[in-house]
Amino acid sequence: MAKKPARPETLPDRWAARAPERQLLLWVLFAIGVGFLMVLGALPKDGIAVRGLDLLPPLGFGLAFFAVHLAFVGVGFRGDQLLLALVAFIAGVGLLAQFRMGVYAGRSLGLSHLVLPLGVTALTLVVAALMDGRYRLLASGLWVWALLSLGIVVFVLATGQRFRGAVYGSGFITPTEGLKLSVVLFAAAFIDHHAKALARWRGPIPFPRVRPLWQLALFAVLLLGLLMVQRDLGLVLILSLTMLLMLAAGTKRIGFLVYGALAAGAAGYAVLQFFSHGQRRVASWLDPFQDPTGAGWQVLQGLSGMYAGGLWGEGFSQARPRYTPIAESDFVYAVVAEELGFIGSALLLVFFALLCWRLMLIASRAKSPFGMLAATGIACVFTVQTLLNVGGVAKAIPITGVTLPFISQGGSSLLVTCIAIGLVLAISDGEPKPVRKKANAKRTAS
Amino acid sequence: MELLNTLFQSAPWGALRIGLHAVFLLAAAYVLKQMLDLRAVVGLKHLAKPRAGFALAGLVMAVAFLGVLAYQATWQLSGTARPEFIAFMQLHDRRQFNPAHWIDRGRILDASGTVLAETRAEQTPDGLAARRVYPFGADFAHVVGYADPRFGASGVEGSANIDLNGGKPGSLKEWGELTRQLITQAKRHKGNDVVLTLDAAMQRLAMERLGERAGAVVVLRPQDGAVRVMASTPSFDPNRIDANMFLRADPRARLLNRATAGLYPPGSTFKVVIAADALDRGFSGRIDCPADGWTTSGRYRKIRDHEYYEARRAGRSWRGHGRIGLGTALAESSNVFFAQLGVYLGHDAFTGTTQRFLFNGRITIGAGQTRQQYMRTGRIPRIPSSDRYGLAQASIGQGKVLVTPAQMALVAAAIANDGVAVQPRLVVRDQPVAAGRFMRSGTAGQLRGMMRRAVTAGTGRGIETPGLAIAGKTGTAENPFGASHSWFIGFAPADRPALAFAVLVEHGGYGSTVAAPIARDLLILARERGHLR
What we know:
Largest interface: A-B, 94 and 67 residues
Largest sheet of chain A: 2 strands, antiparallel
Radius of gyration of chain B: 32 Å
Oligomer: heterodimer
Structural class of chain A: mainly alpha
Largest sheet of chain B: 5 strands, antiparallel
Number of helices of chain A: 17
CATH class of the largest domain in chain B: Alpha Beta
CATH topology of the largest domain in chain B: Beta-lactamase
Number of domains of chain B: 2
Radius of gyration of chain A: 23 Å
Number of helices of chain B: 19
Distance between the termini of chain B: 78 Å
Strand content of chain A: under 5%
Structural class of chain B: alpha+beta
CATH superfamily of the largest domain in chain B: DD-peptidase/beta-lactamase superfamily
Shape of chain A: globular
Strand order of the largest sheet of chain A: 1-2
Number of domains of chain A: 2
Distance between the termini of chain A: 9 Å
């Protein structure tokens, strides 16, 4: 293997180094542009004239992503080149779906116009700040992340308002979205710090030792318990699975997953026993036709739309996804499947799967253990969240009420996801110099 | 902007849009292909070698995505294999372009083939659309029901829904054919017709005779439960359903099927139920019925006969019935007799009777694959054993006793059918099912004679018609909301009954002058149409 050069020095070199990203990004922007033409073209059909303001979201979208690319070139970023295009496509489809559902129908420039550019800016800033190995500084904030996580949950419990079975902060901001990042960072830092002790199991039946684990366990029980009080079962599922996978990845002990699965089974059973909320969801999942106009209504309307869309779909803005309740947030996947058909939704899922795979790849190749753990956590959150949402809409699993990353409406969710992707990108930039010279040399030789 | 708007409204935009749709999907696919091509260039060579275990995680992730997608396909692409799903979409999906609406839903016919509901293709601004048409409008609105993508389905449209859509495809070939027809829209898939036991002519006469008044008519064959008439007024036009009917509490309750779900005090018609129990227990005595009436305790108002009030109104005096037997009491509809009889039989007997006659329940009248159509029977709460006056009131069909017209028709049918009640059924193909034995065979025979006498020489003599041999029982049920409800239940011909019926007119007044003539007119038509042979 040839010795990889360090960072490209001159601007033309940097420009050339990121040519693949540019090429992919331009094609993605072209596809989204075509999609936008379709969405705009459907407006006059409903008696709405296209206004100049309507061109703002797609232009803002295109400029924002190209600006990220230029920023990457500018700072000589050498991280992954696929992620940006993947994110751009998924976010673009999200923008189309949101536009189509009338999020941008307001008369003037609104907050909704700023959400995506803000998120992309945050992504860029995170990359610029944490690249070149600087992300490892985050590991030193171990207890900051723990306190932040618990603080968020307690804050929401104390001040939140209940809406559609979930708890929101003021102004319908969902601060709990932040947990997806803070919990991952805490767990990564903690496991990184105690990796050896955590990996040392003993006993005739292998069992993890309590001593190094208890702080993490207490944190998890407190956090998940409080989330359970808020009835945010989806988030509980995402976070508990993420922490378990991170433990397994950090210690190479598959046993964590086995014990985790046992605990999750017991906890799930208990939850179904005591929470009628969850029971109803399972019942309406098993047989939505039991109460088609009540509990089964939303999922059946979503499926009806998909069925109506068929293989190819009716085309963007040709269908009537409004008939599915709250289609713009949790059920946005049904909108895509209805308007773009099975082919379109399968394409979108391929993009999602590629993004998940890329995140995992970066995790598996990160040089520092902390980077590996953080990227694992983010990849896991992203994958589980996507699968929970899409599976719920397709009725493969019960509805858990989680959003579809980048596509569902919601500023908090988008912002946190952008920051998380930025962090993984920063990790993919590698280290300023080899972490352990000897190990690296050995690997090069072999 | 102008240019864009003009373009979007121009004629070629339609074709262009489909082109753009294809370009969008192709561009997305092309991005994927490029990623495949560039995989060597964008390999993360400056990072470490992949760690073990992550490939497995990636595989699990890919399998999960594939699984979700495959399951999604079973709905999105082969939803036709799920008849409940197709039925749901037909009834609850407002998307006009949904292929489920393309199914040519079967017709609903009456026993002689008259179309009561059919689907017609209509030209709309959005293209060809299927519309459900009910030729007789409001006349069959409750029993046939409606099927509407916005408001769902009711009546037979609801219970026979899956059959009307063509049922469940039996074989893989059938299923493939259905899918092909739906996707290509080459041919409209034809559902099955459903033939009802109803007689459209009689139903329409019943609706006409009820007219503006609220009420219900049920006519059925005692031997096999085939329902000839199930009418309820006021009704609505199922061709023009509007949301207001559902949103606002309609003071006239037009959506309510009064025949199967309206609860009314049965008044004197309930006396046949008490009489049946008494005869079952071998009662054959006489009871003294003073003209001044009778009560269980001095604290309560006396229960008196209608002759007493008529005489008082006319300023005459009335001698009373004196000591009479069950036959005379039923023919003259003596309240004083039945109040005493009910109390004599006792609370336990009354409770047992209401159970045997299936009050406080519901009976299936149309069985579908996923949904059923029911009739309520009534609501008779248990009377505390300390409440003797309540029992006396209940024995003359007043107080807390509430019944549906369909149940009273079923009571008459049981008397006509030697004591056995057969479940009313609306669909010809359904097999007759016994609902239960309401009384002994001998009791039914005796009651048939007594009810015939009520028409020849009793309260129903006004409708005696040569050759019809109507047997029946009138009812004039007091209620707290206004004038008395007018009832008439019975069967004809008395010696070998071919039809049993119940007629109710809300606040109609006397049963003998309002409800009974409607029954007579229906029976005359029934004879013309050959239903009395």
